[in-house]
Design brief:
The complex is a heterodimer of chains A (410) and B (225). Chain A is α+β, with helices and mostly antiparallel strands and 410 residues long. Helix content of chain A is 57%, strand content 19%. In chain A, the strands form two sheets. In chain A, strands 1, 2, 3, 4, 5, 6, 7, 8, 9 and 10 form a ten-stranded mixed beta sheet that branches. Classes of the chains: A alpha+beta (410), B alpha/beta (225).
């Protein structure tokens, strides 16, 4: 009967109920859309970084990421490979040699980060082969180079042109090698495209004079969500194999992409602030509505007290009314949000006009909103809670009334 | 058998900071099966006295005993439970809950007692038939006449089988015929079911039916009974 009374009380002033209900519906739908766009952006940013270069786990010589020295190659990397092959959760890995250098054409030159890759194995740990927009992905033949569109524009070169890559070798001597451009790629990250070029790993080893060593092993696991657990397992497995792990570091993508993870964290915190603002707006709306509702029913509350209804029950009754308001608003708002979300998640939101800044953040022009469990929980929990909390003050006001005063109230 | 005993009850209100003596040294006893009328002119303290008997208000001085249980220092929660189980209220303005039908209004206090759905529905229907208001079961108060609403209020007041029913000027808003009908009904309940009624009224129709009469003047009882 409490539910019946709550519903009927809400329907007493339909216009007022509809106004507050609309604010809850808009609040929930806006929260859901905002949150799902955020989730989509965060996910896209991470996936782009992982698929372009970072993979799930990277193995280096300890401190490699600090200065990326040529001499910082992985000690006895073949032993590491032997361990990797035995781990069931590792679905693919690929060796890389990395060096800073310079790429020159007849017209210009640019600083580069040269990645020596095993082309076929690299295909299994990154999507760079899918990002080729002109020409082809390196076949594995020596002296083939894959450069970005941006780099090609800077060097004023095109497919089939020759370029010279220079880098200091392990002894500090500058070596160079002539390459023919076989492919031009465009990734989702402008900053990446500025410097990264791909050459066969043998060429990179020759330029750097590091023998058959590697600077980095990129690893793909069976689940991107379990990388920390896999890192632990892999570190233990390396130790168990007798490999000296003290000189090596195993990094998850979360650790390699610390700046982006930090950015994501800030993004999440901002979302919380936005929830709070929306929840506060609804909260004050509910306080106002319920206060009006209570003051309109002072007489009735007096009667309820007279016939023996306990204060706690009156309190619950008023909070229940607000909670139901929140619940109905949330359900409808959620449905409205989903109806907006579905076409957006299918077609995406084209932010092409912000192409430059999107690319600098590692984002595509089209964002696909994503509905994950966190988004759903946020949308479904925040508003009913805010409305119930918003009713506390009016409910407290109600139970502070004296039955005799309330009955006399006009 | 004594149900209510008031000992030296005084009540002083603060009206905008000015103390107003509503009751002064009131002593009375009400027995099981009484049909009591507290009469007196407007402002004599009738409603205040009724509120104190019904534990809706607390006296400034003195003690209220319900079945020899002193109510004076009981907590709000305890007084609510006492009102729910032992006291029925009938108000001048009927005061039915506007969002509930007649049947639901009667069922409401049984629901507060925790009676199961079926039982309270059966009991409410039975009492409505007894009071000849069964056809009002699904009507909301705004679709009923004053007399009909007051009959529903009577049903609500007696449905939990209270020790006593307090009626504050129950006929004030009714025409003579309806008022007489309602009083007949309550008198019948009193005679047949031995329900104790306490009225506050200055209506002659009510006073004439009193088995016990207390006349209040300036907050004091000026007759024995």
């Amino acid at each position: 009967m409490f539910f019946k009374i709550a519903i009927r009380n809400l329907l007493r002033n339909k216009r007022r109920t509809l106004i507050i209900l609309s604010s809850i519906i808009i609040g929930v739908a806006a929260t859901l859309i905002y949150d799902s766009i955020n989730a989509g952006m965060i996910d896209q940013m991470l996936v782009n970084q992982i698929n372009t270069y970072y993979s799930h786990i990277q193995i280096h010589k300890k401190g490699f990421n600090d200065n990326r020295l040529v001499t910082s190659y992985i000690p006895e990397y073949k032993k590491v490979e032997d361990v990797l092959k035995k781990q069931k959760y590792i679905t693919a890995y690929s060796n890389r040699v990395i060096a800073f250098g310079m790429l020159s054409s007849a017209n210009s030159s640019a600083g580069i980060s040269m990645i020596g890759i095993e082309p076929e194995r690299e295909k299994r740990v990154s999507d760079i082969h899918k990002m080729v927009i002109e020409g082809r992905y390196p076949s594995g033949k020596l002296n083939e180079i894959l450069i970005s569109k941006r780099m090609s524009e800077k060097l004023e070169v095109t497919l089939g042109d020759k370029v010279v890559a220079m880098a200091a070798d392990i002894n500090g001597k500058v070596n160079s090698e002539l390459f023919r451009i076989v492919g031009i790629y465009r990734s989702h990250t402008g900053e990446f495209d500025k410097v990264f070029v791909y050459v066969p790993i043998e060429n990179a080893r020759t330029i750097l004079g590091i023998g058959d060593n590697v600077s980095e092993i990129a690893v793909i696991t069976s689940s991107a969500d379990s990388t920390f657990s896999y890192k632990k397992q892999l570190t233990n497995a390396l130790k168990d194999s007798g490999y000296k792990t003290a000189d090596t570091e195993v990094l998850t993508y979360q650790e390699s992409l610390a700046m982006i993870m930090y950015l994501i964290d800030i993004w999440k915190q901002t979302s919380i602030i936005i929830y709070l603002i929306i929840a506060l707006a609804v909260l004050f709306g509910v306080i106002n509505t319920m206060l009006m509702s209570v003051f309109e029913r002072v007489n009735e509350i007096g009667v309820l007290m007279s016939i023996g209804m306990k204060n706690s029950a009156i309190f619950r009754m008023i909070v229940l009314e607000a909670f139901m308001l929140g619940l109905v608003g949330t359900v409808v708002g959620f449905i409205v949000g989903i109806l907006i979300y579905l076409p957006l998640s299918h077609n995406g939101i084209n932010l092409g006009i912000y192409s430059e800044s999107m690319s600098s953040m590692g984002l595509n022009n089209i964002i696909y909103p994503e509905l994950n469990l966190m988004v759903i929980i946020n949308s479904l929990v925040v508003m009913p809670l805010a409305t119930a909390v918003g009713a506390f003050y009016p409910a407290r006001k109600a139970i502070k009334l004296q039955p005799t005063d309330a009955m006399r109230y006009v | 058998m004594e149900i209510i005993r008031l000992e030296n009850i005084s009540k002083i209100y603060q009206d905008h900071g000015i103390p107003v003596q509503a009751l002064k040294d009131v002593n009375l006893e009400i027995d099981k099966g009484d049909f009591v009328v507290i009469a007196g002119p407007s402002g004599s303290g009738k409603t205040t006295l009724l509120n104190i008997i019904g534990s809706l208000d607390i006296p400034t001085e003195g003690h209220v005993f319900l079945e020899r249980d002193n109510l004076t220092h009981k907590k709000k929660r305890e007084l609510s439970a006492i009102r729910l189980r032992k006291i029925g209220f009938i108000f001048q303005a009927y005061n039915l809950l506007p969002v509930l039908t007649a049947l639901e209004n009667i069922e409401f206090s049984m629901m507060l007692l925790g009676l199961p759905d079926k039982e309270r529905h059966k009991k409410a229907m039975k009492i409505m038939e007894e009071l000849d208001i069964a056809e009002l079961a699904n009507k909301k108060p705004n679709k009923m006449s004053g007399g009909q609403q007051q009959r529903v209020a009577v049903a609500r007041a007696i449905v939990n089988d209270p020790l006593l029913v307090l009626a504050d000027e129950p006929t004030a808003n009714l025409d003579t015929k309806t008022a007489n009908g309602l009083l007949d009904l309550m008198q019948k309940m009193n005679e047949e079911k031995n329900i104790t009624f306490v009225f506050s009224s200055h209506d002659k129709k009510v006073i004439d039916r009193a088995k016990k009469l207390f006349i209040l003047k300036d907050g004091m009882i000026v007759n024995g009974n």
